[in-house]
Amino acid sequence: MSGDGSYAAVMARRDAIVRASVGIDYDRYRTGVLAFDYERLLADTGYDMESARAVQAATGVGGTPLLELRRLTALVRAVAAPGKGARLFLKDEAKNPSGSFKDRRASLSVYEAKRRGYPGVAAATSGNYGAAVASQAAKLGLPCVVVQEAFDSRGIAQPEIAEKTRACEAYGAEVIRLSVGPELFYVFLRVLEETGFFNASLYAPCSVRGIETLGYELALQALDLCGRFPDVVIVTHAGGGNVTGTARGLREAGAVGTEIVAASVDLAGLHMASDRDFNRKSFTTGHTGFSMPFTTWPDRADVPRSAARPLRYMDRFVTVTQGEVFYATQLLAELEGLERGPAGNTSLAAALAIARELERERVVVVQETEYTGAGKHPIAQLNLALSLGIEVRRGDPRDNRPGERIVIPEHPAQLAARAVDLDRVRRSYLRHALESLPEHAPLEAADYAFLVEETRSSRAYVEEVLHGLQGTRR
């Protein structure tokens, strides 16, 4: 590889490497000490809804069906109070070429790489996104490198990640597998610098614009099927792009009154960068190990300013347990004949609980599914958990303990969507904002306006929280 390869030297070149790999000068969008012109960053991709859909359609992405889950709706009504039990629908994103909604974000990124003349594409991800980028690269004839955080220091890989390695390689990508630790970003920067490939970042503006088509489609499909926009859309939440893109697409379709619920698997207490904890989670994405840090500070991404900014868009944030997701996975298979992977079933588990509290005429949409197979099956995940000494049993999901005990419900009435306190999340976001400020740098009017938009609050709220936080720092 070129240049000084020491960790310090590569990190010192980080901004230049990223700028060259995404072709965006992020400094152009700076409007304050913290603020940047978010909407212009997205607009400058050059894509509107129709052009994004056209690019996706050319490689078979999008246009997935919205399915009514009639038997699951009946099950919810059987355990709900009289008159309760909303209609459940599911956007079957497993119908995309690589089997998940990640094809939508990958399609625009790979198309851009080709259009701008990059010799290939690279992505740092252990999730479905790697397979999506590899699939789209294969369709456009571009080489592809995927860097994965794949196993712990004993060489034990999560079965779900091993399945994604297989999928990436099947599409012809080179996969670099790493153990858990801080070297992922360093290795990824070296790959970008050496190859000159396009950085198909999950957090780049093209990526988020690609997901907007998902929200747009499901809004119009619900309108066609039900005569109304969805009352609630439940989105599995990890790094924020899924929430952001879906919400923006819904708005563009005119569904401005739809409630956006972000749902994550509760992995409180487990540290994603911990060698011990890495395999003690049963899901590679859609859990609080990603969603909480990326909600409270989205700019921890591999680009200077993330286009995925979930706190701007979520109306509610809920968690479910690992056991509830496994339970929902089995219900979907047995009652609806749909065997799908765990990511979309995270929001399905939350939807089953939320629909129980709503009037029957209300419409609830689970906005994604993902393909399943091999390591994505619950049995593979539960076998790994058992081998690590994690207890697996049936019972009350309130007894679930991340990393210690997986409790699979015995009855659908036990499913619950547990609310995350959004005020605490907003305060945590503002604490991170304060910590990111250069020393003695005063906030400008543009910064306050930006923070108000980021937290969906008011100038008075931002000032009150920041004032309190500054007091604790003295």
Automatic annotation (TrEMBL):
Entry keyword annotation includes Acetylation: no
MF terms in GO: cysteine synthase activity
Keywords assigned: Pyridoxal phosphate
Cofactor dependency: pyridoxal 5'-phosphate
EC number(s) on file: 2.5.1.47
Gene3D superfamilies: 3.40.50.1100
Tryptophan synthase beta chain-like PALP domain mapped to chain residues: 59-366
Name the record gives this protein: cysteine synthase
